[in-house]
Amino acid sequence: MTGQARWVRVAVLSGVIFLAGMLLCGAVLVANAATSKHAYSTVKRVWTETRFEGHWSATYDTFDGLEGTVCLLREGQVINLSYDLNVEKGMLTVVVIQPDGSRLWTKTVEEPLAGVATLVTKMAGRHTFRVQGEATSGGFDLTWNLGSGDK
Questions:
Q1: Least crowded by CB within 10 Å, which of 14, 60, 90, 112?
Q2: Any bridge partners for residue 41, and if so which?
């Protein structure tokens, strides 16, 4: 076999290995996307947001994905949560998640809804206020005041 023929053979084999690797990577990406709707991105269009201690609000033309903010709380601490959820289309879920990943409170809406909730933390640590949009437009306004609780 000549040097040129060997070089062509190596180049073809390298190309085949490269293509097989690309196909495998593509298959993994497709499989991950199929199992998790928001595996790689959050879509926000015309998103206007305000965050400060005890308040988080946003308005948007399109929101599809997850966003969150974290508070460090004590066990037994009272959270007085006021919410105003303006859903024009799609679905919006608001969740308060405890440090162990369990849900302390959840509200899912497909139309505008306002209300209040009084929550008591079951453990100390980082609690997450999370919003999940599913092809939604509108906005949300969350305000919370922290009480001392019994502990």
A1: 14
A2: none
Which option is the CATH number for 43-146: 3.40.50.880, 3.40.366.10, 3.30.70.20, 2.60.120.260?
2.60.120.260
As a whole number of angstroms, the distance between CA 89 and CA 109 comes to 10
Question: Where in the chain are the domains?
Answer: 1-35, 43-146
Q: Are 125 and 86 in contact (CB under 8 A)?
A: no
Q: What is the pLDDT of residues 24-54, one digit of tens each?
A: 444 444 444 433 444 558 899 999 999 999 9
Q: What is the pLDDT of residues 96-122, one digit of tens each?
A: 999 999 999 999 999 999 999 999 999
Per-residue CA distances from 40 to 32, 81, 137 (Å) = 9, 30, 20
